[in-house]
């Protein structure tokens, strides 16, 4: 037991996190164009085999979806939780919990419906004007992700997604518009959500269709274009507002060696390096040696110009943000028996850890380990922008939701985060993932709930959409009110 009483910094940013494609709905409202996520169907856990992470879509499949009536099928991300119409009510609830920050993303196709439009969509810009002014009313800082797992579908079908270098220009134009429009109301920005998804699910990460996704050269070229686009965003952001801070966003995965066999330890080191390669480029400004070796040994050859290298080196991020949900084991021997699913990862089960209802391994100490490791490596402020428990919740007859398991999960993680602060790690804030129930990214389920606020909607879009406070709502409010002292 430790006795560190340091406490959280007084300006610690407590809050919650969301993404446009998982909450907004209104997929065809206000001039918004179709997004890559509007094509993703309900894909429940039961249908998902071990080792299968999200869907890849082919051109044929998308064309088939587009031939149908857009009301056909079950595409939950098109409806979200109707934040598009209910943002005032939701922000009021966040304010009641005492949020200092709300992480949300701007839907790129709401601003540039086709991605290559000449002018932005004014109605889309107005929607975020309204959201930001509602947040300002309660002194809640927006933390805005520029690209959270979605892009205009047209950029995929017409240009081949991020595999095409022209995407850097389209993205730069989009970010310049939003940095300029919101320069007085948004101080914290993130470029690409979980940029490492690009190599895991190239469709969702980078708009690469199923056939092209088999070609590693296309995938890593797309990733490189995103790195360049991210550095360009950092540059434009600083030029437009020198006070603004902009970070990268990584899905962090700690990998422990399965045994103390040096070969397992080496596999764990390699897995770790591979996970950190993405933040290395964005934070240090260059491709590390180990990844160059990986490219060589895997016959990956991509185009990187001297200008790209200069841009990456001169425009590194101000802070590192990441999602933390689980840890896994690394081993020289991987067989299917040992495998376990995670958010965007598949790995090996750790016998010391328990799983969530969706099989994700719960490891609060791993959060402290990751905070220490990342701070040791980068010496830049860190921001936990996702962490939370996806679980089945029950709305009781008296309209209460008793989610003590979520309180327990969050408390243990916050405790470890505080330990990391005592270790000397600089942490800007914590935004709990899915602070209001939303559509799951990986399965499009509604029944996988993360929120402190319950949303009455089922997997098929049925329900009143009424919002109800869970027990965790009152608990988190207390945590924020006491700046983490009262857990
Ligand atoms: C992260 C994503 O990987 O995990 C979120 O950034 C996502 O968009 C979250 O929702 C939880 O994953 P899931 O699949 O349970 O929604």
Automatic annotation (TrEMBL):
Coiled coil: none annotated. NCBIfam families: PRK09593.1 (NF007158), PRK09852.1 (NF007356). This is 6-phospho-beta-glucosidase. The keyword Hydrolase applies. Its EC number is 3.2.1.86. The keyword Hydrolase applies. The active site is at 386 (nucleophile). Keywords: Glycosidase, Hydrolase. It is an enzyme of class 3 (hydrolase). The lineage of its organism: Bacteria, Bacillati, Bacillota, Bacilli, Lactobacillales. It holds the Pfam family Glyco_hydro_1. Belongs to the glycosyl hydrolase 1 family. GO terms for molecular function: 6-phospho-beta-glucosidase activity.
């Amino acid at each position: 037991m430790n006795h560190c009483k340091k406490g959280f910094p007084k300006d610690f940013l407590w809050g919650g996190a969301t993404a446009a494609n998982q909450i907004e709905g209104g997929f065809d409202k206000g001039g918004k164009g179709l997004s890559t996520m509007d094509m993703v169907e309900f894909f429940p856990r039961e249908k998902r085999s071990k080792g299968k992470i999200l869907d890849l879509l082919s051109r044929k499949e998308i064309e088939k979806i587009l031939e149908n009536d857009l009301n056909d099928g079950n595409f939950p991300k098109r409806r979200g939780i109707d934040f598009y119409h209910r943002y005032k009510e939701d922000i009021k609830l966040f304010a009641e919990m005492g949020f200092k920050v709300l992480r949300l993303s701007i839907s790129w196709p709401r601003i540039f419906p086709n991605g290559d439009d000449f002018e932005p969509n004014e109605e889309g810009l107005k929607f975020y004007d309204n959201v930001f002014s509602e947040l300002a009313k309660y002194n809640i800082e927006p933390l805005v992700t520029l690209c959270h797992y979605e892009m205009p579908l047209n950029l995929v079908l017409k240009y081949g997604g991020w595999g095409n270098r022209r995407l850097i220009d389209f993205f730069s134009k989009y970010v310049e518009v939003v940095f300029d429009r919101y320069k007085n109301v948004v101080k914290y920005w993130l470029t690409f959500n979980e940029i490492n998804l690009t190599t895991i699910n190239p469709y969702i990460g980078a708009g690469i269709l199923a056939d092209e996704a088999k070609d590693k050269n296309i995938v890593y070229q797309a990733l490189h274009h995103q790195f360049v686009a991210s550095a360009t965003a950092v540059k434009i952001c600083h030029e437009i507002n020198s006070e603004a801070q902009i970070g990268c966003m990584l899905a962090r995965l700690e990998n422990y060696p399965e045994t103390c066999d040096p070969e397992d330890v080496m596999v764990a080191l390699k897995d770790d390096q591979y996970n950190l390669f993405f933040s290395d480029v964005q934070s240090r400004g260059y491709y590390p040696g180990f990844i160059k070796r990986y490219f060589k040994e895997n016959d990956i050859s991509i185009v990187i110009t001297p200008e790209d290298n200069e841009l990456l080196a001169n425009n590194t991020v101000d802070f590192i943000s990441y999602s933390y949900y689980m840890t896994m084991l690394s081993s020289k021997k991987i067989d299917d028996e040992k495998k376990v699913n995670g958010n965007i990862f598949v790995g090996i089960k750790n016998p010391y850890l328990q799983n969530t209802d969706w099989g994700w391994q719960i490891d609060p100490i791993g959060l402290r380990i990751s905070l220490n490791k990342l701070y040791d490596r980068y010496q830049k402020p860190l921001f936990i922008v996702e962490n939370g428990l996806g679980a089945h919740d029950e709305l009781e007859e008296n309209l209460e939701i008793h989610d003590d398991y979520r309180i327990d999960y969050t408390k243990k993680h916050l405790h470890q985060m505080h330990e990391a602060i005592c270790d000397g790690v600089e942490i800007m804030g914590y935004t709990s993932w899915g602070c209001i129930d939303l559509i799951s990214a990986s399965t499009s389920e509604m029944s996988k709930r993360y929120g402190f606020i319950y949303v009455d909607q089922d997997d098929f879009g049925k329900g009143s959409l009424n919002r109800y406070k869970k027990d965790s709502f009152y608990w988190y409010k207390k945590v924020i009110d006491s700046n983490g002292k009262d857990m």
